[in-house]
Amino acid sequence: LGICVGMQIMCKSSEEGSMNGLGWLNADVKSIEPIAQEQQVTIPHMGWNDVYVKKECMLFSKITNANFYFLHSYYISPNTETDIVATSIYPNEFACCVSNANIYATQFHPEKSHFNGVKLLENFATLC
Length: 128
Fold this sequence. Notes:
It is a single chain. The chain is built from two helices and ten strands, in the order βαβββββββββα. The chain is α+β, with helices and mostly antiparallel strands. The strands form three sheets. A five-stranded mixed beta sheet has the order 1-10-9-8-5. A three-stranded mixed beta sheet has the order 2-3-7. The chain has a two-stranded antiparallel ribbon with strand order 4-6. The radius of gyration is 14 Å and the shape is globular.
């Protein structure tokens, strides 16, 4: 389970530097940027955001109203759409949870996300 930077390290490359990532996820790390000049975004993105589950995954079992805590300036851009488990929006939609085989990763911080975070970590422990 990769969390935040742990998720980003699992990717192939990053706009943040020139070193390759581990390449465990077929994804690249990109900087958060607005799509239009008039969009006002604060970097880093810090705070609570809704998470939209896109495909069934044990991590989100028994979690309703998925709302998690984020703190990041970069996000991952998966090259494989089927890896995307959930998305969030800041200021644009981005993948905030992915899985592939036995790899799971979240951009948000479950350890700072109260009841939903505890449940997600419990679900991951059950997977193990």
